[in-house]
Automatic annotation (TrEMBL):
This is RNHCP domain-containing protein. The lineage of its organism: Bacteria, Bacillati, Bacillota, Clostridia, Eubacteriales. It comes from the Bacteria. Residues 22-110 form the RNHCP domain. It comes from Faecalibacterium intestinale. Pfam families: RNHCP.
Length: 141
């Protein structure tokens, strides 16, 4: 093991200050993920299925013992218009936010963004009734 590999393994918070150039295989879809084309020095999720692993408590610290699969459950827009993915650990339920990478699957991102609109917390038939109650004519065009 060379000196840099020892630092990665034993230095707490190594990835907070150093780029992660490691290639990994996604545990969900099996795709080989490389740091190239991510648009960032920190590749932390699969660009295909957007899944990740629960390895950090704080970004880059690699101290989590959980190791569960972090599934993408939502997207949100940061100040300045940058998108980020909300991941939830399937094992312990922890939520985390990760920047969208340049090579992330745009169809997967859009499907996650559209999920709340496709499954509202009320029947779609009530939209006409609610529109009428709010002063509209109630018709769907």
């Amino acid at each position: 093991m060379n000196r840099e590999n020892k630092r990665k393994t034993f230095e707490k918070g190594y990835y907070k200050t150093h780029a992660c150039n490691d290639t990994f295989t996604c545990k969900v879809c099996g795709r080989v993920c490389t740091p190239q084309n991510a648009g960032s020095d920190h590749r932390n999720h699969c660009p295909n299925c957007l899944s990740s692993l629960h390895v950090d408590e704080e970004p880059g610290d690699r101290v989590s013992d959980c190791g569960g699969i972090m599934e993408p459950v939502a997207v949100w827009v940061r100040k300045g218009g940058e998108w980020a993915i909300i991941h939830r650990c399937k094992r312990c339920g922890k939520l985390s936010s990760n920047r969208v990478a340049a090579d992330d699957n745009p169809m997967k991102l859009m499907s996650i963004a559209m999920k709340p609109l496709c499954s509202p917390p009320f029947p779609l038939d009530y939209i006409e009734e609610m529109t009428a109650l709010m002063g509209g004519d109630g018709r769907m065009r």
